[in-house]
Amino acid sequence: MCRTRDYKETHFDGLHVYYNPYASVPLDKNVFFPPEITHNFYDIENDIPDQRHPDGALVSRQVFEISKVCRRHIINNWFPEQSKVL
Fold first, then answer.
1. Burial class, 41, CB count within 10 angstroms (exposed 0-12 / middle 13-18 / buried 19+)
2. pLDDT tens per residue across all 86 residues of the chain
3. Nearest CA to 37 among 62, 5, 61, 59?
């Protein structure tokens, strides 16, 4: 959990592009240039996946709803300066 101002995310975060090694018309890897995009290749010769995740890439996200009691506990203990405002 962090403050909104301490977290940045773009529409490209979490986007994965998978390249088909058997494609008759291969996708040009330079089409997708934003640094947040993860490129997934498959090395046929060595029979291994090649995943190029940029540093700080979003791999997963989880959204959950917390109860009012838990929220109050978190605010009071993690952000005491905010507990006076709320």
1. middle
2. 666 777 777 888 888 999 999 999 999 989 988 888 899 999 999 999 999 888 777 777 777 788 889 888 888 888 877 766 65
3. 59
Provide the whole-model pTM.
Answer: 0.59
Sorted by where each begins, the domain ranges of the chain are: 4-83
SS3 labels along the chain: CCCHHHCCCCCCCCCEEECCCCCCCCCCCCCCCCCCCEEEEEECCCCEEEEECCCCCCCCCCCCCCCHHHHHHHHHHHCHHHHCCC
